[in-house]
Amino acid sequence: MEIYFAPMEGLTDSVYRRGHHKYFPGVDKYYMPFISPTIHRSLTEREARELPYADTECFTAVPQLLTKNAEDFLWAAQQCADRGYKEVNLNLGCPSGTVFSKGKGSGMLRDPDSLKRFLDEIYASAPLPISLKTRLGVEDPREFETLLEIYNRYPVSLLIIHPRVRKAFYNGTVDMVQFEKALAESKNPICYNGNLCAKEDIHSFSAVHPAVGSVMLGRGLIGDPGMLSPNGTDAKTLLAFYDELLEQYTRLFGGPRNAMFRLKENWRYLLCRFENAEKLGKRLKKSTDVNEYRAITHEIILNCPMRKQLAPDW
Ligand SMILES: Cc1cc2nc3c(=O)[nH]c(=O)nc-3n(C[C@H](O)[C@H](O)[C@H](O)COP(=O)(O)O)c2cc1C
């Protein structure tokens, strides 16, 4: 079973991926948060930084594109190919209001005819294998029947299914009944994504679904970054990882304040790895001073007992 790190905008950027791989190896591929190509046919400074040449990294990463315009997709896919990537992923799942209302991300699922025209164009001339990351639909999981018929027409290198509809965002239970139907009927290889938060979750999933070759983890791996490493998430390595992230982001953002705000996003998921950390967590949330941030996070990592496994509160 291959294990992939989910793309997470604001969390799994290039700095995070490098640090994670260095301190906690075990991920087979890192999917990158989306890039939105535009008509301007150039990458912004930030996009270029976030899309480093593939051979400058010592792990496999896959760029993700968010667009409903086939020409923009093909232009950006060529940029990815030129930088040495071997796969490009299309975002068909982003539920955010602004993305959805522009007909991108999960917004592409509401108009199957347009989706088909888009896929016709990109699969006809893409310079790289294309994987898809999709939800079950917009409102009703049964929408997936039509969507799967469409996906089955193309050589999708990997169909990553997050078995929720758009209106569920990331909340509530995942729809395993629809997922299993998809598994039975897909002509393309499938990767499962959703709510896997511990090694045991992965083992149980793979025992029930031996035919699924890969799973993708998001929030669970942010919260328990060493889940896949032989020693698990030990305090010493976690501290070194987060100290290095703070240093790297401080350099990148030109100061520690923005670096701290950036890392507080990760703590949203990391905090529930620890017992008795609620009070410190509240102080951390309010903190606007980097020295205080450092003191609180060190105290959590060094003094709060780590749980046996993550206790997700999402
Ligand atoms: C803060 C945040 C940012 C995300 N950014 C992206 C993204 O850029 N592209 C994408 O396809 N999915 C994105 N996702 C969805 C995740 O990749 C994943 O599908 C979702 O978190 C469910 O998996 P999990 O239960 O393992 O976390 C994001 C999710 C969250 C919570």
Please sum up the structure shown:
This protein has helices spanning 14-23, 45-50, 70-82, 97-101, 112-125, 144-151, 176-185, 199-208, 219-223, 235-253, 256-270, 278-286, 290-303, and strands at 2-5, 29-35, 61-65, 88-92, 130-137, 159-165, 190-193, 214-217.
Topology:
Elements: E1 2-5, H1 14-23, E2 29-35, H2 45-50, E3 61-65, H3 70-82, E4 88-92, H4 97-101, H5 112-125, E5 130-137, H6 144-151, E6 159-165, H7 176-185, E7 190-193, H8 199-208, E8 214-217, H9 219-223, H10 235-253, H11 256-270, H12 278-286, H13 290-303
Parallel strand pairs: 1-2, 1-8, 2-3, 3-4, 4-5, 5-6, 6-7, 7-8
Helix pairs in contact: 1-10, 3-5, 10-11, 10-13, 12-13
The chain binds flavin mononucleotide.
Largest sheet features: 8 strands, parallel, barrel
Number of DSSP helical runs = 13
Point out poorly predicted stretches. none
Give the oligomeric state of the chains in this entry, treating copies of one chain as homo and distinct chains as hetero: single chain
| Mean pLDDT metric | 97
Question: What keywords describe this structure?
Answer:
314 residues, alpha/beta, binds flavin mononucleotide
Commentary on this structure:
It is a single chain. This protein has 314 residues and is an alpha/beta fold. 44% of the residues lie in helices and 14% in strands. It contains 13 helices and eight strands. It has an eight-stranded parallel barrel with strand order 1-2-3-4-5-6-7-8. α6 links the parallel β5 and β6. α1 runs antiparallel to α10, α3 runs parallel beside α5 and α10 runs antiparallel to α11. The longest helix has 19 residues. The protein is globular, with a radius of gyration of 20 Å. The mean pLDDT is 97. It binds flavin mononucleotide. The site of flavin mononucleotide has 23 residues, from β2 and α9.
